Amino acid sequence: MRIFFTGGSGKAGRHVVPYLLEQGHRVTNADWVPLDHSGVNNLRVELTDAGQVYSALHAWAGFDELDPGTGIPSYDAIVHFAAIPAILHRPDQETFRINALSTYNVMEAAAKMGVKKVIFASSETTYGICFADGEVKPDYVPIDEAHPTIPQDSYAMSKVANEVCGRSFHARTGYDYYGLRINNVIEPHEYEEMFPDFLEAPEKRRRNIFAYIDARDLGHMVDCCLKTDGLGYEVFNVANPDMSVAAKTDEIIDRFYQGVEVRKDMGPDETFYSIEKAQRMVGYSPKHSWRDVLDDPRG
């Protein structure tokens, strides 16, 4: 597929783009800075400028596309990951403005230019736990996509707004808009750097619902969505099937989720961030775990 990928130079994108290239896709990376990786076409685009978005989507991806003399090919899909990645990077108003406006521009251009699939990065933060002022517990566990999304912060608000845009543009066009509620992205080198601390102190993962997503498995999820047509508008939790801590599920419930409804029997290491919908609807099957790198102190 010919893919327009925004934010491919970011923490997640720099792993997802190479994965998509390995699957045989052609990728144009639209970002403020280029991605130094063989085979990717880079284009510097300001996504809050609608004119730049329209122009970028109707441009050759590389010089080789000039050779047939048949005009500019169209994109098969857009993967929109570009965003201010969290609170505290920019003033709150700028975080919301950039994230919401850039997403609107990308989705509107897709709708008007006939790009029939948009996969966009939403976030675990939409559930209102990650960046809450104080402790907020989920309504129930494991958290699935039906859980309320009522955040307090500008970053998560922008992601909820993006989901509303996706649902609305699907209603207008009938095209596929898939929102990925991505949990805390972990790069392979971060297991040795960060996880020993998490295994000893599970409270450090409370705001992330004790979950994580390996960047390589995120690439797999995007590819699953590219290969699955006709779902319309959908949102998916994206995480790995195990927790990011050594404590077992019953210990986490006793310590952090007392009084919270537990809606199903859970395995001893099962994530509280349900990925059942992604597994069932698009064939998501994550392969990586911190246990591939570190010994589990609980055995």
Automatic annotation (TrEMBL):
TM region positions: none
Source taxon at top rank: Bacteria
Coiled coil: none
Domain NAD-dependent epimerase/dehydratase: 4-224
Protein name per its UniProtKB record: NAD(P)-dependent oxidoreductase
